[in-house]
């Protein structure tokens, strides 16, 4: 999914660079609302995990491999605005130190993987969580579905950008078939990894998972009186 130099024309690269800059600026403004004192270390841990996971590829068939995008995972764990910042840092480091994605395409890559994936996953997660029962056990499955959707959405937006400003000698119909076909498979790996990671954290510290906040707020609150028998439960 990392777009190399020269794959899109200059005007498209500049436009996505402007979108990326605006998105990161907005994320910087809104991220402070997503983190409390307990969750302050999480963005660094999430960025480190996504960075390491993106460096590992898994085979999907016919010599093609995929890797974690991490947008949905980061959005569920630390919130969408903070997730945009995490992914932007990861993509910038990968580009400058490992030549993973072109320098002139850094805005495109941040727009696709750091914004489209994050925002798309956040919307899917929020909608599903609004429609389904508020249970901790559903946080990870919903995150997995959001992760799968984010991969497909990101590939669709990439194809749209290529249709507008693509310069590589690849027919649009061929690119569309390849991108949607292979990313439909890559999305399965994204969903599995996201679901497992979120489930493991929710099982231990659900209070640190941004996507579990609405579930915890709807949970009955126990009122304990010193020396009293079993606690009474009142709906929050």
UniProtKB/TrEMBL annotation:
Membrane topology term: Multi-pass membrane protein
InterPro entries associated with the record: CbiM/NikMN (IPR002751)
UniProt entry tagged with the keyword Transmembrane: yes
One Pfam entry name: CbiM
Principal cellular location given in the protein's record: membrane
Domain of life, source organism: Bacteria
Biological process per Gene Ontology, one example term: transition metal ion transport
GO cellular component, one term: plasma membrane
Keyword Transmembrane found: yes
Transmembrane parts of this sequence: 7-28, 40-60, 72-99, 105-128, 140-164, 184-204
Keyword annotations from UniProtKB, A to Z: Cell membrane, Membrane, Transmembrane, Transmembrane helix, Transport
Compartments it resides in: Cell membrane
Name of the protein described by the UniProt record: Substrate-specific component NikM of nickel ECF transporter / Additional substrate-specific component NikN of nickel ECF transporter
Source species of the chain: uncultured Nocardioidaceae bacterium
